[in-house]
Amino acid sequence: MKVLSGLTLAATLLIPSFANAHTPLFSCYDMGDGTIECEGGFSNGSSASGVKVFIKDASGAEIKNAALDENSYITISKPDGAYTVTMDAGEGHAVIVKSEDITE
What we know:
Layout: H1 2-19, E1 24-30, E2 35-42, E3 52-57, E4 62-67, E5 73-77, E6 83-88, E7 94-98
Antiparallel strand pairs: 1-2, 2-5, 3-4, 3-6, 6-7
């Protein structure tokens, strides 16, 4: 009986941590006017406002870093050549979008 009670207690303690789990979501679009617009968020519906965004060139050199605005968007000038845009919401919560995957 004590084993069953221990398992029930363990399950009760773990369920809230699974319920709070969320996956980062991040999409970028070429606006056709020399800018790229990106939107971030999380699978549980929470905002990504303030989350850091890094733009790097093909060699990995940082071109720009900024944060998503209060609506979880960022608009940047489209870099020349190949680049990546990364939303970094912390360990295990980074999403990288390559320039070749960004379409109008």
